[in-house]
Amino acid sequence: MLPQLSKIKGAALDFLFPQKCLGCGKEGELLCRRCQLSLPRISPPVCPKCGRPQPSGIMCPSCIGWQNNVDGIRAPFKFEGLMREAVHQLKYKNLRSLATPLAELLYNYLTHYPLPGEFLVPVPLHRKRLRERGYNQSLLLTYKLGKLLKVPVVDSCLARVSYVLPQAQTKSAAERIENVRGAFSCLNSQLHNTRVILIDDVSTSGATLDACASVLKLAGALSVWGVTLTREL
């Protein structure tokens, strides 16, 4: 579709079906400025590994014995309240247009707290789940974020090769680690000798990001940081 026609179509849809804020219901935006300011933020200092709030700014007790592959995990928001609802709407309710304001929030965070990365890589879905859902919400976020940061996106290297139980349905950190063991693979050496930032919507235990980082480093990535929109605390 031509850009001009796309804009006209978008304006017509906004007129017929005006966007409403998920938080307060105000027309005009999916996340109004006032509700954005009230979102449950994770503010520094945080654990340098998992990114959870840590008053001392040093490694938290749960990370001391963690033999991690991911260099660190960061998230600007807690997985609760309006952010939980926004992720749910993006992930399960086909509200794909939410990817734009959510990516802008991630962009603002990374502008204030930059991480080393030459490429952005979305956490992939298994092809069966992709067929079920119709889209990968992490891919949508990553491409929107890449345009804002002017950082290239690589979605042709990391693949999910096993169809496993969703991490949200596991009961413990140990189960989450086991659930994603061997779940990912690198299809090529495209990210050899590069610094990578993984993008996902939610981090719970960090097991998924760590499993992705493991195969990326085996394929030659120099560093792998995980960035998610939200963090379950």
Give a structural overview.
This protein has helices at residues 3-16, 33-37, 61-64, 81-92, 99-112, 127-133, 137-149, 173-179, 207-218; strands at residues 72-74, 77-78, 119-122, 158-160, 184-186, 195-203, 223-231. Mean pLDDT is 90; it is low at 5-16. It folds into 2 domains: 1-38, no CATH class; 41-231, Rossmann fold (3-Layer(aba) Sandwich), CATH 3.40.50. With 233 residues, it is of the alpha/beta class. Strands 1, 2, 3, 6 and 7 form a 5-stranded parallel sheet that branches. A two-stranded antiparallel sheet has the order 4-5. The termini are far apart.
Question: Which properties best describe this structure?
Answer:
five-stranded parallel beta sheet; 233 residues; two-stranded antiparallel sheet; Rossmann fold; alpha/beta; single chain
The amount of helix comes to 25-40%
CATH architecture of the largest domain: 3-Layer(aba) Sandwich
- What's the CATH class label of the largest domain? Alpha Beta
How would a crystallographer describe the biggest sheet? 5 strands, parallel
Uncertain regions spanning at least 5 consecutive residues: 5-16
- The tally of beta strands, per DSSP, is 7
